[in-house]
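>> Question from a student workshop board

For tomorrow's exercise we were told to take the sequence and the ligand below, predict the bound structure, and bring the output to class. My setup keeps failing. Could a helper post the expected result so I can at least see what it should look like? The ligand is 2-phosphoglyceric acid.
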Amino acid sequence: MGSTDFSFKLADHPKIPKGKQLAVIILDGWGEEKPDQYNCIYVAETPTMDSLKKGAPEKWTLIKAHGPAVGLPTEDDMGNSEVGHNALGAGRIFAQGAKLVDYALASGKIYEGAGFKYIKESFENGTLHLIGLLSDGGVHSRLDQLQLLLKGAAQNGAKRIRVHILTDGRDCLDGSSIGYVETLENDLVELQKQGVDAQIASGGGRMYVTMDRYENDWGVVKRGWDAQVLGKAPHKFRSALEAVKKLREDPKASDQYLPPFVIVDENEKAVGPILDGDAVVTINFRADRMTMVAKAFEYENFSAFDRVRYPKIRYAGMLQYDGELKLPSHYLVSPPDIDRTSGEYLVHNGIRTFACSETVKFGHVTFFWNGNRSGYFNEELETYVEIPSDSGITFNVKPKNKRCHIEWPL
Ligand SMILES: O=C(O)[C@@H](CO)OP(=O)(O)O
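>> Workshop helper replied:
Here is what the output should look like for this input. Compare the format with yours to find the bug.
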């Protein structure tokens, strides 16, 4: 079918009668795998799921939620809710951020793009700051991509580089931050040998510093801002390896929740605050946990927290994180262009939809579901309900889902 033949008109469903309500319920994080003692879903008592499966085995279908089936580079790439909701919402497979960045780095196209050219203008007199998740998880970012970008930036003229790390332990083992920091520091030493002034400048755990999502807690982004931009944090160290090792000595510490720290020189001065004339790149390819920090860097008018100082920088995202808001306006790799999602089809056919979730997953059933697009297709036909999540308390401490009361029909 040529593109001009395209129509949003849906044919009648062969089985589901018109006028019925249909619920799509996403069990985010649920899956079937090898039945052994390491499989927590297999080991747990799951009477509702068991009865659903036994009650209608002919209707029980497994779908793949990882690897190329959801647009990720290889079978070894675990699924995650961005790629899962994108694929389910669109009903089609799109090459995802991880794959697009891999390609842009391998082909060198990343350095020819408008985004890189834009930040490159700061290389002569300013510092290049890279902010993002230091991890091999492949869900929000990948260490090998950061390594390639560091090398490529240096080859393309960056003379002074500062990396602001966010430790993971959520998409990879808790404690793995130490190994990742070692690897990164070794790479930075190699760059120093080539005459590049390259260092880790600040850090903190992803869930406590910078990587909040869906505006659940701006305090998280502020902690990152203070360390990365202002060079201020409750903990100061001479190296990131020392920082991560020392902070992890607290028996309650975990990579995800490490407090913010800055690296200081022999005079206790932060080695890498973000200053006028610098370039900043947020290196995560996944959008949800980068949108808030992107707003803090991008928006002149901003009131979510007191930035104290708003440096005049050239800022780019690894990808554009929100296609609707065009946020950020500069980016190194074009995001997947996910169009004709199910939500768009439904409104074009006059069908009402209702999406509901707690704050921390709200964008999953709206933004990701609609192809990384914020807002409504048609506000008259769509209703989105966000049930506020707790902030400042983690789900392992308070796991119970919240309820809300909705009058039906809407
Ligand atoms: O919390 C998140 O950001 C990811 C894991 O990194 O989980 P999910 O894909 O389920 O949102």
